[in-house]
Amino acid sequence: MDAGKQLVHAHEIGIKTGLVLQKRVRNAQEDFSHRVQEACGDGKGIGKGIGKGEGLADAARLMTGADPLSCYAYAVDAAQRAILFWDTLRQRGNHFVENAVQGLKPVLHFDYEFVLDGRQFERPVNYALLRITPPEGVHIDNSRRPYLIIDPRAGHGPGIGGFKDDSQVGVALRAGHPVYFVIFFRDPEPGQTLLDVCEAEQIFVKKVRALHADSPKPAIIGNCQGGWAAMMLAASDPDDTGPIVINGAPMSYWSGAWSEDEGDNPMRYAGGLLGGTWLSSFTADLGNGKFDGAHLVQNFENLNPANSLWDKYYNLYNKADTEPPRFLEFERWWGGYYLMNREEIEWITRNLFVGNKLWSGDVKGAGGKGFDLRDIKSPIVLFASMGDNITPPQQAFNWVVDVYESTEEIKARGQVIVGMLHQNIGHLGIFVSGKVAQKEHAQIVSVLKSIELLPPGLYGMAITERAEKSASGDVEYDVEFREHRLEDIVARLNRFQRVDEKPFEAVAALSDFNQRAYELFAQPFVQAMSNDLSARMLREFHPLRVQNWALSDMNPWLAWLGPAAEAVRENRQAMEPDHPLRQREQAGAEIVSAALDGYRAVRDAMTEASFFGIYANMFSLYFGNKEPAHDGRPVAVETAELPQVREALASIARGGYVEVLGRIAFLLMRHGEPLPLSRLEMRKEMVADYGEFLPEVPMHEWRSIRGQQEIIVQHAPEQALETLAVLLQDPADRERLLTLLDKLSTDERVLGSKPTAEQVAMLARIRRAAAGKPERVRRPATLARA
Questions:
Q1: How many CB atoms sit inside 10 A of residue 246's CB?
Q2: What are phi and psi of 75, to 5 degrees?
Q3: In the 8-state DSSP scheme, what is residue 754?
Q4: Amino acid 164: pLDDT
C-alpha cells in the first residue's frame, strides 16, 4: 500500500470511528435521560410535569408522605439500615481475614474429599483433584459417566462451579453422576507453568477413568479460563476424555462484537491501549516473581463501575434485613485473590490475550507437539451469552472457524460441535445463576447422555419450556438440535466478516517490541528492587484488599459496630419498602446508577474509538505492504473442490459393512428438520437393541466414517447407491445387512414416528441396491440436496 492509499485509509478510519463515537455517545445520553425520567416520572420522584404546567402536581407528589412522623420514621429506618450495612461490611472483612489466615479454601457448597494433590507430583503444581460428596438424599450411580469440573484461575479462587445447590455440581449430582472438581491453592509452586498444569490435569483424568473403569469416559466441564484449559487437556490427551463442555470460555481473543450501535467488549481493547504484555511482566516483577490475581479482579470491577461502586452496595443497604447472607456468600468468593507465577501470566498474555496463537500450532505442549483442537475425538458443547461483555459469543465460537476450513472438514473428521446461546445473562451468571443451572446446565447433563450419537457436524441447541409442568410442579424443558453450516454461523456472528480483528495484528507486533524493550532496559532494575517483603506489602495494600481488612475487627475504631448492630436487630423499626419516602430514596439511587452507567458507556465508546484510531492506522502502515494473512474465515471455494470432498469421493467404492451402515444412516435421515433429544435418546436404545448387527468400532471412528459417507451421498447420490453392492462383497455382510433392513422396515423408531414417503421409497431402493439389483432411478430432490 503506497503512501497515498495509506493517507486515504487513515482518513476513512478517522471518519468512521468519529461517526460511531458520536452515535454511541448520543445513545448513552439518551439512555441516561430515559432512566432519569423513569425514576422521577412514575410517582416516585419529582419532575414529571416540568414544562407542562404540572408544577403544583409535582410539588404535591414530592410532599406525599413527608409529614413529621413519617420523616422521623424514615430517619430511624435509614440510620438503622446504615448500621446494619456497615456491620455487614465488617463481617465481610472478618471473613476475608479469616480466609487469608487459613490460606483460602474453595467456596464449594458441597462436602468433598481429596483424591490427588498436584503438589506431590514429580512436577509439582498447586492443583488438586476433589471428589464431591453427595448431600443427604442424593444417590450416585458409579456406573454413570463421571463429571470433571475445571474452574477458572483468573484472579479468584475455585468453587464457582459448585457455589450453590443449583449449580453445575448440583445438577450433575441430582442426575446421579459422580462429580470430581479440580481446585487450586492460593500460592503457585515454584517454577510451575501452564504446561505443567495441563500435564497434572491429564493425570487427574486418568485417575477418574481408573476409578470408573466400567463407566463412559468422563465429561470435562470448563468454566471461563478453565474452558480453554479443558480444551488444551482434551487436545493433548484425546483418548481419555469424554464430551467437553466449555462455558463462557474465551477461545478466540481478538474476536468481539463491534457495531455502529454499541461496543460490548471493552476488555479486548485493553491489551492494545496498555501497550501489550509488558505490563503483566512488570507487575509480576514487582511481586518478586508472583502476579497478584487482585489486578485481574480489579479489571473486572472496572468493567461495570455502576455495580462495583454503587448498585451492589445500595442493594445491600436497601435490603439490609434480608440481603446480607447472599451478599456475604458471594463476597467470600469474589474477595479471595490468588497468585500466579510470572511464567504463567506471561504465557497467558503472550499466547492468548495478545498473541491469540494457542490454536495456530505455534504453541507446543510438553511433548513438543502443537495443540490441535482437531485431534479432539469427543463432542464439544459451547455455551455463551449475548449479554457477556467478558467473553462474547464471537470469542467463544470463532475458534471453530480458525481451526476448521469448512463444514465438510468437521464432518470428515467425525467431530460434533454443539453451540448454545443465552440472550442476556452476564458472564458470572453463566456459572452462578440458579436459573441457568436449572435450565441450561441441567439440560446439558441430559444431553451428554446421548450426544455421542449425533452425526458429525455443527449444531445449535435450543431449549424450550413445556406448557405443562411435571407432576411435582417443576418446570420441564424440551431440547432439540438443528444442524448449521459453518459458513452461515460465521456470517451471523461476525457482521463485518472479522475485518475489525486485523488491527490486533499491529497490537501483537507492538507488544513484542515493548516486551523486549522492557526485558532489556527495565526488568533488571525492577527485579533488583523487589523482594518478598516489598511484594507482600504491595499485595496487602492493594485497594481491593484494603477495603476488606480495613473494615474488620482488626480496626479498633469499629469496636462499637458489632454491639450496635445487635441492638438494632433487637429493636428494628423498619419502614415499608413501598412508602413514598423509601420510593424517593430508590429513585435517587437509580439516578446515581444511571449516571455511572452513562459514564461507562461513554468511556467504552472512547476506548473503542481510540483503539481503532491508533491501531487500524498502524496496521495499514506496518502491514499494508504484506500479503493479506488468512483471517480465519472459510475460503469461498466450491465444496466439490475441497480436499475432504475429493478424498471422500475417491473412496466411494472402498470399504465394507461399516461404510455401508454409515451411508445408509444418512440416506434414511430426516433432512432439514430439527432433531429432538427424545429421538437421540431413542437411537441410544436402538444401539443396544440392534447390537448384534452393528460393528464394534470406537465412537469417534464411527462418526468419521459416518461423516465421510454423508459427503459421498451429498455429492454423488446415485453412485452412492450403486456402489453399495460393491462394498458388500462378503455374503455374510450382505445377509447381515438385509436382515437388519428387514427389522428396520417394521421398526418405526428408525424412521421417526411417521416415516415419510421418501424414506419408505429410499429404504426399498437401499434393499435392492444391497442385494445387487440397483435401479437407475433419479433420486427425489428432497433427498439429493447438497
A1: 28
A2: -65, -40
A3: S
A4: 87
| Residue 130 to residue 118: CA distance in whole angstroms | 11
The residues that bridge with 756 in the sheet, in sequence order, are: none
pLDDT tens readout for residues 416-441:
999 998 888 888 888 888 788 888 88
Query: DSSP for 593-640?
Result: HHHHHHHHHHHHHHHHHHHIIIIIHHHHHHHTTSPPPP-SSPP---GG
Do the Cβ atoms of 426 and 436 come closer than 8 Å?
A: no
Backbone φ, ψ for residue 246 (5° rounding): -120, 125
What Rg value do the Cα atoms of the chain yield, rounded? 30
Burial class (CB in 10 A: 0-12, 13-18, 19+), 156: buried
| DSSP annotation string for 361-412 | T-SB-TTSPBP-GGG--S-EEEEEETT-SSS-HHHHHHHHHHH-SSHHHHHH
Q: Which CATH number fits domain 112-257+342-493: 3.40.50.1000, 3.30.1700.10, 3.40.50.12780, 3.40.50.1820?
A: 3.40.50.1820
For 534, the enclosing helix (H) or strand (E) is helix 532-540
Q: What is the pLDDT of residues 136-157, one digit of tens each?
A: 999 999 999 999 999 999 899 9
Please write the tens of the pLDDT for every residue from 54-79. Answer: 554 555 555 666 788 889 999 999 99
Please give the model's pTM, rounded to 2 decimal places.
0.90
pLDDT above 70: percentage of residues in the chain: 89
Who contacts 97 (Cβ-Cβ below 8 Å, separation ≥6)? 548, 549, 552, 553, 554
Cβ contact 345:178 at 8 Å? no
Q: E-assigned strands of 279-373? A: 290-292, 339-341
Q: Are 154 and 296 in contact (CB under 8 A)?
A: yes
